Amino acid sequence: MKLCVHGIGYIGLATGALFANNGHDVVGYDPDEELVAELREGEPRTTEDDLREYVLEAMEKGFEPSTEPVEADCHLICVPTPYDEDAGRADMAYVETAGRAVADLLKPGDTVILESTVPPGTTADVLTPVLAESGLTPGEDFSVAHCPETVLPGNITHELVHNDRIIGGIDAESADRAIALYEPVTEGTIHRAPNATTAEFVKLSQNAYRDVNIAFANELARVAADYGIGSRDAIDLANNHPRVDILNPGPGVGGHCLPIDPWFLGQSSDSLDLVESARRVNDGMSEYVVELLESELGTLDGARIAVLGVAYKGNVDDTRRSPGLRLAETLSSLRPGDQRASAVTDGGTEVDVRLHDPHVEDDGIPLRSLDDSLRDADAIVISADHDAFADIDPERAASLVSNRVVVDATATLDADGWRRAGFEYVSL
Ligand SMILES: NC(=O)c1ccc[n+]([C@@H]2O[C@H](COP(=O)([O-])OP(=O)(O)OC[C@H]3O[C@@H](n4cnc5c(N)ncnc54)[C@H](O)[C@@H]3O)[C@@H](O)[C@H]2O)c1
Ligand SMILES: CC(=O)N[C@@H]1[C@@H](OP(=O)(O)OP(=O)(O)OC[C@H]2O[C@@H](n3ccc(=O)[nH]c3=O)[C@H](O)[C@@H]2O)O[C@H](CO)[C@@H](O)[C@@H]1O
């Protein structure tokens, strides 16, 4: 079948490769000319080695990057759906633009599938009317379905094939056609949702569930500290119960899915309560780490803090809504007299934040080498659970810092080893 994937960023690239590797004739359209040129030269924009291999294999099988959309039997839309903070709503501009491009190419008998994460109702009430501008009748002349993507960054090539998929259409035939497309390339089970809106709702519920569960762990971490006990020991023990599965506390929840999707879920409902509280708890973790640093150091006045980890989570290079960067911003924003940090008082000197991340290359982020960030530091914070951080030699770190305090917000380090090297080791 001829497929046109609209948007070959992280999700579209992998999805296009999936179908090309399974015998489909796939064009990957993206308006980002540089991205397309790099891909044509065999340089997919990813640091995940297995995804890179998977994409190169697909290109050998004819997966074709393009700066123009093309006619196809099936159009797959994988464009960004950012959250407009000011409007408090999902920004649907990319979906609408992609819909118009599809409408210009649409033929009777085509299928259009939206993979992007969207607020409930988008496929039926936003995308389908745009497609109808083609003059064709939705449901009669062409099919429209939502198949949300659920891959976990860092494990994409496995989850792309093995995850279950939820598919909902604007009508039964739309769902049938989308299921027929995905079934042969999916090892997981395909579940038919009653309609596209339910499929959208389910995707958002999965991410809100995880966000709430992490918020519960983060709240437990704060409560456990009030009792002078280790939250991770307590959570590990609690999880021995057959119906309890608490996640891990950390410096906050980042990425462009979990911190946003709960707001998509509540976009046209006034009933979010617990989900909203969870967002507040998770966003509050950077302030909590600042409080921990302050209580360890006594003062943050002029403190040199090494923040290790600006990726939003371990072993990835994505910095969107990164807890490490949020912590850095919070530390850098402390001003004399600031109530959040009583120790940075009148006449205080700003905090010197040093950022280091072995996975991230970003000209916009002032990153330093590990040694440069540790040299003369008053405290170290581990804010992403990169495997590389577990290999940092605590004796060497001890020889570089001026004060041996480490706040291991992701419990990545060997606590005993760092304590033996003379560090005051604090975790969440
Ligand atoms: N990244 C993830 O882990 C993940 C997982 C599940 C779902 N999603 C969802 O998938 C969607 C895409 O996310 P992503 O991470 O791939 O984003 P991305 O930013 O990596 O890629 C999106 C691509 O779309 C292109 N684009 C923009 N406008 C376009 C248009 N009108 N037509 C064609 N292409 C256009 C951009 O140039 C970009 O290359 C989002 O809705 C996201 O929430 C992402
Ligand atoms: C339901 C679900 O699984 N959805 C996944 C999620 O992918 P993700 O990469 O955003 O998810 P996480 O790995 O959970 O990380 C998010 C943040 O939470 C922190 N964290 C995590 C676990 C924990 O116990 N304690 C924490 O503090 C972590 O450090 C990071 O900052 O959304 C994608 C897009 O929709 C989905 O496709 C993908 O399936």
How many β-strand stretches?
Answer: 15
CATH superfamily of the largest domain: NAD(P)-binding Rossmann-like Domain
The CATH level-2 architecture of the largest domain is identified as 3-Layer(aba) Sandwich
What is the spatial order of strands in the main beta sheet?
Answer: 3-2-1-4-7-8-9-10
Portion in helices: 40-55%
Question: Main sheet, how many strands, which sense, barrel?
Answer: 8 strands, mixed
Could you say which overall geometry the principal axes of the C-alpha atoms support?
Answer: elongated
Quaternary arrangement of the chains shown?
single chain
User: Uncertain segments of ≥5 residues (pLDDT<50)?
Assistant: none
Rounded to the nearest angstrom, the distance between the terminal CA atoms is: 51 Å
Number of helices: 17
Report mean pLDDT, rounded to a whole number.
96
Amount of beta strand: 5-15%
Radius of gyration: 24 Å
Based on secondary structure, the structural category is: alpha/beta
Domain count:
3
Enumerate the distinct ligands.
Answer: nicotinamide-adenine-dinucleotide, the ligand CC(=O)N[C@@H]1[C@@H](OP(=O)(O)OP(=O)(O)OC[C@H]2O[C@@H](n3ccc(=O)[nH]c3=O)[C@H](O)[C@@H]2O)O[C@H](CO)[C@@H](O)[C@@H]1O
Q: CATH class of the largest domain, please? A: Alpha Beta
In the CATH hierarchy, the third-tier topology of the largest domain is known as: Rossmann fold
What does this structure look like?
The protein is α/β, with parallel strands linked by helices. It has 3 domains: 2-194, NAD(P)-binding Rossmann-like Domain (Rossmann fold); 204-281, N-(1-d-carboxylethyl)-l-norvaline Dehydrogenase, domain 2, CATH 1.10.1040.10; 284-427, 3-Layer(aba) Sandwich (Rossmann fold). Helix content is 41%, strand content 14%. It contains 17 helices and 15 strands. It has helices spanning 10-21, 33-40, 49-60, 93-105, 122-132, 156-162, 172-182, 196-226, 231-238, 261-265, 274-283, 285-297, 323-333, 370-374, 387-390, 394-400, 415-420, and strands at 2-6, 25-29, 64-66, 74-77, 83-84, 89-90, 111-114, 143-146, 165-169, 190-192, 304-308, 352-356, 379-382, 405-408, 424-427. An 8-stranded mixed beta sheet has the order 3-2-1-4-7-8-9-10, with helices on both faces. Strand 7, helix 5 (122-132) and strand 8 form a beta-alpha-beta unit. Helix 1 crosses helix 3. It is elongated and about 70 Å long. The chain starts with a strand and ends with a strand. Bound molecules: nicotinamide-adenine-dinucleotide (NAD) and the ligand CC(=O)N[C@@H]1[C@@H](OP(=O)(O)OP(=O)(O)OC[C@H]2O[C@@H](n3ccc(=O)[nH]c3=O)[C@H](O)[C@@H]2O)O[C@H](CO)[C@@H](O)[C@@H]1O. Residues 6-12, 29-32, 35, 78-81, 94, 97-98, 116-117, 149, 151, 153, 257 line the site of nicotinamide-adenine-dinucleotide. The ligand CC(=O)N[C@@H]1[C@@H](OP(=O)(O)OP(=O)(O)OC[C@H]2O[C@@H](n3ccc(=O)[nH]c3=O)[C@H](O)[C@@H]2O)O[C@H](CO)[C@@H](O)[C@@H]1O binds next to helix 8. Residues 306-415 form the UDP-glucose/GDP-mannose dehydrogenase C-terminal domain. Pfam families: UDPG_MGDP_dh, UDPG_MGDP_dh_C, UDPG_MGDP_dh_N. One of its GO terms (molecular function) is oxidoreductase activity, acting on the CH-CH group of donors, NAD or NADP as acceptor. This is UDP-N-acetyl-D-mannosamine dehydrogenase. Keywords: NAD, Oxidoreductase.
